[in-house]
Write a structure and sequence with these properties.
Blueprint lengths: L10 E3 L5 E3 L5 E2 L1 H15 L4 H8 L3 H23 L6 E7 L15 E8 L2 E6 L7 H6 L3 H14 L3 E2 L6 H13 L7 H16 L2 H12 L5
Antiparallel strand pairs: 1-2, 2-3, 4-5, 4-7, 5-6
Helix pairs in contact: 1-8, 2-3, 3-7, 6-7
Length: about 220
């Protein structure tokens, strides 16, 4: 066993069953680390909170709290990773769940984000939601007119700078649409974190995801 903080191999076992590193002097619990590693692996396997809770026999709330923390850590990591990168191309995407697409007024509930291609990865910038204008347009009785004009705008004035129709950005959008289906009833204030989770899983292979999450999470929570 190595120290989870500095990879030093010389550890001391304490009476509390924890281990203390001879180099960095930090302590950690092997049992807790093992549990956390199992939750990280389940998260990267796309298991739901309920599935992970049952599989590992861990309290649902404990798993939920870890999943939420993973998403926050991932979002911060992606923001840092994107900093100062050269953008190759970008395009705009408007997401609306299929269940809402049949009612035109639901366009106000759409999530709008820009997807940037850099190196061999994508980065997403969440835009302001249209629903901040919803009540104003409906109260003024111009909801129908707005919807028609907005539809035309999206058809002819879409923000875009892509080199070809099929590219890494469109691949991400397909991946996003498929991935988001497993989540039910995402609150607006949490959508950003789910978007970033999907971005993370698109950008990195399974083993890379686990390695990154271990580096982000374990030093903070052992």
């Amino acid at each position: 066993m190595k120290c989870i903080y500095c990879n030093n191999e010389k550890l001391y076992k304490l009476k509390s069953a924890q281990f203390k590193c001879s180099k960095c002097k930090k302590k950690f619990s092997p049992k807790r680390v093992e549990k956390d590693l199992s939750i990280i692996e389940s998260f990267c396997e796309n298991l739901s909170i309920n599935q992970t809770s049952k599989k590992l026999s861990i309290n649902y709330v404990s798993v939920k709290n870890r999943y939420e923390l993973f998403r926050r850590l991932i979002a911060n990591h992606l923001e840092e990773s994107y900093r100062d990168k050269t953008v190759i191309e970008y395009d705009e995407y408007i997401y609306l769940p299929k269940s809402k697409k049949k009612i035109k007024e639901n366009i106000f509930d759409a999530q709008n984000f820009l997807t940037f291609h850099y190196e061999d990865k994508v980065y997403n910038l969440l835009m302001t939601k249209l629903n901040i204008h919803k009540n104003q347009f409906l109260d003024d009785g111009v909801g129908d007119a707005y919807f028609k004009e907005f539809s035309k705008f999206m058809m002819y004035n879409k923000i875009s700078k892509t080199q070809k129709r099929e590219n890494i950005i469109t691949k991400f959008w397909l991946f996003f649409e498929d991935s988001i289906l497993k989540y039910k009833g995402i609150k607006d204030e949490n959508f950003f974190y789910y978007l970033k989770e999907i971005e993370f899983k698109f950008n990195y292979e399974f083993e890379e995801q686990i390695e990154i999450l271990i580096d982000l999470y374990l030093p903070l929570n052992t």
